[in-house]
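User: Please run a holo structure prediction.
Assistant: Happy to. Please share the sequence and the ligand.
User: Here you go; the ligand is iron/sulfur cluster.
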Amino acid sequence: MNENHTLEHLMKKADVRSYDCYQCGKCSGGCPMAEGMDLGPRGIMRSAQIGALDSILNSSTIWLCSGCYACVDRCPHDVNVPAFIEEARYEAMRRGIVRRDSEVLNRTFLANIRAFGRSHEMLLAAFYNIFALKPTQDLTSLPHMISKKLIPIKPDPIRGVGDVQAIIARAERLDKLVKEVRE
Ligand code: SF4
Ligand code: SF4
């Protein structure tokens, strides 16, 4: 399958047609993650229109999309951008295209939830900075956050940590099954 066919196939699976998008930009205007994204939802659709699958698969956008569907709500043509983004994310994973920072954030966040049943921001930030090779990122805001008690210093695990671990294990098994079915 050549790149154009792959792109068409992904769009078909997501039930999205690139010509439905007329680049009004309302999706990117309402996307809560747009600030950190390179393409944003409008850019994803533009790349699809010009056949730039490579830009889509290598973008930060496909890893930062939270699937909140704010873009779909705002779109005058109901273009389901997150469904297409999800297909693009699977295609990127199939090709082994994984952004290091996103992968590190996913892993450190999950490790945190596994250990405490909820996120402990200080440890999450510390491990993320170390493994993402960004040791000084956000360091200057730390004293202010501690002095205002915005983040706790010590982790405060929930009572049902074991239950959370069981949920994560089930989700991982399901994720593995979904991947096997898609391959
Ligand atoms: S809101 Fe809809 S039509 Fe407008 S740019 Fe976004 S996807 Fe395209
Ligand atoms: S679903 Fe994704 S692209 Fe759409 S608004 Fe939410 S984060 Fe942005």
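The two ends are 14 Å apart (CA to CA).
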